[in-house]
Design brief:
Layout: E1 2-7, E2 14-19, E3 22-26, H1 32-41, E4 51-53, H2 59-62, H3 65-72, E5 75-78, H4 80-84, H5 87-91, E6 95-96, E7 102-104, E8 108-114, E9 123-129, E10 135-139, H6 147-152, E11 158-162, H7 167-172, H8 177-184, H9 192-201, E12 209-213, H10 222-234, E13 241-244, E14 251-254, H11 263-268
Parallel strand pairs: 3-4, 4-5, 5-6, 10-11, 11-12, 12-13
Antiparallel strand pairs: 1-2, 1-14, 2-3, 7-8, 8-9, 9-10
Helix pairs in contact: 9-10
Bound molecules: zinc ion (2 copies).
Length: about 270
């Protein structure tokens, strides 16, 4: 399994997960032109992607999904609430997936988890490779670490998790009080501090890489976000890596530990 964050933040989000020949996008919140360019940067043909799972209908997650599906033949999946809230997904025959249901792809199984966010029926996504058992979790746009969010984040090899804002920078930032309240609410976005706490609880022996995502351009700082979660992880037995996703370029690939679906292990097993 390999994972790249093609870009993350309020101007667009997309995560690519690959297992063998199977490639899946979680969200496609960029125009097809930008998606094609980011994929070209990592040598991936857009038409080689099997499916796109859309977490919710906000533009920064759905923008290029329907157009990408039309142009490159992706299968589209989203919750019923998300599809019904987005005419483009309805027109593109997006498959409705019940929260907690699984979707079987050629080499991965996707499971969705309800997330607390101010959208119709938002979800986080867990993708497991059917050949190696390696698991990637994408958990962004969450107002707080609900029980369902904590369940989503357990036993991941690769964890992409929201670290949206620093609470002090949000209070001192440019947003009016109503927008600040929306971001900080239990259905808004996860602060660095809440992210650090959630990540600490997600540590287990196979967790190999944590990628902080959906950072606010106005109310966060890459160094501050990294430091907050790094400090929390230092007090655990976590020995994996910690990275920060970028809005305007790709980061990755991130791989599970050897023996947990890394390419060497797959070849050794003749898979
Ligand atoms: Zn959102
Ligand atoms: Zn978002």
């Amino acid at each position: 399994m390999k994972l790249w964050v093609l870009g993350s933040g309020s101007a667009g989000n997309a995560v690519l997960v690959e297992c063998g020949e199977s490639r899946v996008l979680v969200d496609a919140g960029f125009s097809p032109r930008v998606l094609a360019s980011r994929l070209q940067d990592i040598g991936v043909a857009p038409a080689s992607i099997e499916a796109c799972l859309v977490t919710h209908e906000h533009t920064d997650h759905v923008k290029g999904a329907a157009a990408g599906a039309r142009r490159w033949g992706w299968a589209l999946y989203a919750s019923a609430g998300t599809v019904d809230a987005c005419a483009e997904l309805v027109e593109a025959n997006c498959v409705r997936v019940g929260t907690g249901e699984t979707v079987s792809l050629s080499r991965m199984v996707a499971t969705t988890f309800a997330t607390p966010h101010d959208a119709a029926s938002p979800v986080g996504v867990r993708l497991s490779c059917t050949h190696t058992g390696a698991t990637a979790v994408v958990c962004t746009d969450v107002g707080h670490a609900s029980e369902s969010v904590r369940a989503l984040c357990t036993r991941a090899d690769l964890l992409v998790i929201e670290s949206n804002h620093d609470e002090g920078m949000l209070r001192a930032g440019p947003y009016p009080p109503s927008v600040q309240a929306r971001i900080a609410s239990r259905t808004g976005h996860l602060s660095n501090r809440a992210c650090a706490d959630l990540t600490r609880g997600a540590v287990h022996k196979d967790l190999a890489h944590v990628v902080l995502a959906h950072l606010s351009a106005q109310c966060n700082d890459h160094g501050v976000a990294h430091q907050t979660t790094a400090d929390a992880l230092r007090r655990t037995r976590y020995r994996g890596a910690l990275s920060v996703a970028m809005q305007h370029h790709v980061v990755g690939p991130f791989l599970p530990r050897a023996g947990r679906g890394a390419p060497e292990a797959q070849y050794a097993l003749g898979l």
